[in-house]
Amino acid sequence: PTSRAPEAQPGEDEGGVEGETDRIAHADAHADAHGAEGPGADGGGGPAVDVAGDAEAPVATPVERLRAAVEAFDGKRWREAEEGFRVSLGVWPEIDGVVRYWAMEAAFREGRLDDALPDAEAVAGRDGPHLRDATLRLGDIAFAQERWDEAAARYESLGDGLPRGTDDAVVRFRIARCREEAGAEEAARRTYEELVRKEPDSPAAAEAEARLRALDPEFSIPPAWRLERARILVRRRDWGEAIGELDLIPAGTRNPTP
User: In this structure, are residues 226 and 246 in contact, taking their beta carbons and an 8 Å threshold?
Assistant: First the structure.
């Protein structure tokens, strides 16, 4: 089994730590109230001093370390971000689940699935703001490692409650791929066909088409599907792609009916 991370899903925030700004912005106020400990912690978020050395040198406070972790994540410096979040665990117990989630997410995005897995399990195992996000990641990790039954179960447990920004078509494709591996080829084929016809602007459509070709080397998208795809793209104001679909309908084809 491979340990390569799947591509980030379209619609996911690939840069910033979306939705965590408010929690982290109040960390200064929490530091003193909750007895935050760390090198030189003074409860005010200002620079601390290492009095053990001959020269005074600034030492990062817990708040500064957390801010640095967020900035590293925004800059896609995944290892640095993960380490910054991990050293913040236990400082503010009330946000430990959030901090652990972002440490996991940084490891996941760098492709270190085995490192991400325990934290994803921990976050998904208790109620919190990232329970569903962590469950999705457990599905993604199982899918990348070809643990098909577990991946399908994780995805299906989310039902219609996918985390915000998740490409529903990608999840449907992955469930179908798991089912194909489990021997339910016809059920998988129906999902692939639906994705090719109705999700022309999702990466899942191209992946589904590839699976249809794997199942039937002579497969090609019928003209009626091309027309249906073009109609969908026009409704989504994607004229360039819509015209491209129409251009692929063989000359002489008249009134293809989806």
Answer: yes
Closest CA to 156 of 144, 169, 172, 142: 172
pLDDT of 7 over the 70 cut:
no
Contact between 146 and 1 (Cβ < 8 Å): yes
Which residues on neighbouring strands pair with residue 59, listed in sequence order?
48
Give 61-88 pLDDT, tens digit per residue: 999 999 999 999 999 999 999 999 999 9
107 vs 86: CA distance, rounded Å? 11
Going through the chain in order, the beta strands assigned E by DSSP cover 48-49, 58-59
Assigned token pair, 254: 């008249």
Q: Rounded to whole angstroms, how far apart are CA atoms 91 and 41?
A: 11
For the cut 60, the answer to whether the pLDDT of residue 227 exceeds it is: yes
Amino acid making up residue 213: R
pLDDT in tens, 84-121: 999 999 999 999 999 999 999 999 999 999 999 999 99
Q: How many CA atoms lie within 13 A of 179 on its CB side?
A: 17
| Surface-to-core class of residue 34, CB atoms within 10 Å of its CB (0-12 exposed, 13-18 middle, 19+ buried) | middle
Exposure string for 133-172, b = 16+ CB within 10 A, e = fewer: bbbbbbbbbbbbbebbeebbebbeebeeebbeebbebbbb
> Across residues 220-236, what is the average pLDDT?
93
Rg, Å, the chain Cα set: 24
pLDDT at 250: 84
Q: Are 140 and 111 in contact (CB under 8 A)?
A: no
Model-level pTM? 0.77
How far is Cα 128 from Cα 100, in angstroms, rounded to an integer?
A: 11
- Assigned token pair, 31: 């530091």
